[in-house]
Predict the structure of TolC family protein.
Amino acid sequence: MKLKIVIKFIIVNATFLLSFAAQAKSLEQAVAKALEIHPDVRALFYQYKSMEQDIEIAKSGYYPTADLYANAGIGERDNVQSRLGSEDEEFEPVSYGISIEQILFDGFFTQENVKRTKAEAKAEFFTLISSAENTALDVVKAYSSYLSAEKILELAERNLASHKEIYGQIEERKPTVDLVRNQICHKLEDD
């Protein structure tokens, strides 16, 4: 008895899997399209890309900085010569230049900052993967439900056709059944 149930179970599952395999290409397309257009997956993808940029920003602590500066203005001198009148008290200072700095040791701040941002990016990546897998699972469930509903509809249509055929056969035999019934009734009345 159990063997028959197991065999039926295997046959039903094999039939389902074969029909599922026949539709695999369109299932792949459905999953790919859903992952492409799902707003949560897209948002997490761009958030992950942003975290990758943050890693590059954190690495910028390793590089030297170059600053360009320029000053201009009006000033007054207050020294002995300016008080004696031998030097003009007002002047217009102009200064400009470039400064290049390289931090030699920042207490491992840059190194730890890079590690931290890499860990955050990795966590964001796994969040993206999780969301994508959940979305794909939802699509597969919906696709599977659709295939099941399609099979049920097909079976219902075949069942309806079978019932119509049987009903037609009954309608064809009805005059014969009525004739036999009438004959039986007459025979019973005669007796």
Summary: Strands lie at 65-72, 75-76, 90-91, 94-101. The radius of gyration is 43 Å. Residues 6-18 have pLDDT under 50 and may be disordered. Residues 24-62+105-191 form one domain.
